[in-house]
Amino acid sequence: VQLEYSLASRGLDAHLPALRALGVGVTAYGVLSRGLLTGSKPNGPTDYRAYLPRFSGENAATNQKAQRSLAELAAARKASPAQLAIAWVLSRGTDLVPVIGARTRVQLAEALGALSLELSPAELLAIEQAVTPETVAGTRYDAAQMKMLDSERRV
Fold it and tell me: What number of CA atoms fall less than 13 Å from residue 143's CA on the CB side?
């Protein structure tokens, strides 16, 4: 299955036990929450992120705090926020494969650097506490789009 999964969007956690029991692997997309976890901001009105709740208004200011917390942890580790976010997803199990979008070779090299990060249980906990779904303001999409997502339906 392919589902969105990141520090900010952990809805997959509710489905993982069933998927694992069935032997189903996960292709995780949105690992960097469309750049939210790296401090990326929409580049004008043609950037669709400008219309996503997490990047708009007060939500954007709130989410910058979470991003700064992740950046501080990354700096202490001499890594980037992207590398920590990717390494966190990789730590969740070998049945999860993160999809990483890189527009430049520099971004690709940065993302690949996550493969060499070995995070201790204490570091993983600190990362999980720095950015939680509860501290991230706004939904992934607007209300109408959220209703269409099967992954957001509760059984």
Answer: 0
Q: pLDDT tens digits for 24-38? A: 999 999 999 888 899
How far is Cα 9 from Cα 141, in angstroms, rounded to an integer?
Answer: 12
pLDDT at residue 39 above 90?
A: no
CB neighbours (10 Å) of residue 110? Answer: 19
For residue 49, what are its two tokens?
């992120």
DSSP character string of 91-146: HT-TTEEE----SSHHHHHHHHGGGG----HHHHHHHHHHS-TTTS-S-SS-HHHH
Indicate the residue type of 59: N
- The sign one gets for the Cα dihedral 105, 9, 56, 153 is positive
Distance CA 137, CA 140 (A): 9
Q: Which of 58, 71, 102 is nearest to 7 (CA)?
A: 71
Residue of 68, 109, 117, 85 lying closest to 4 (CA atoms): 85
- Tokens in use for 125? 């906990």
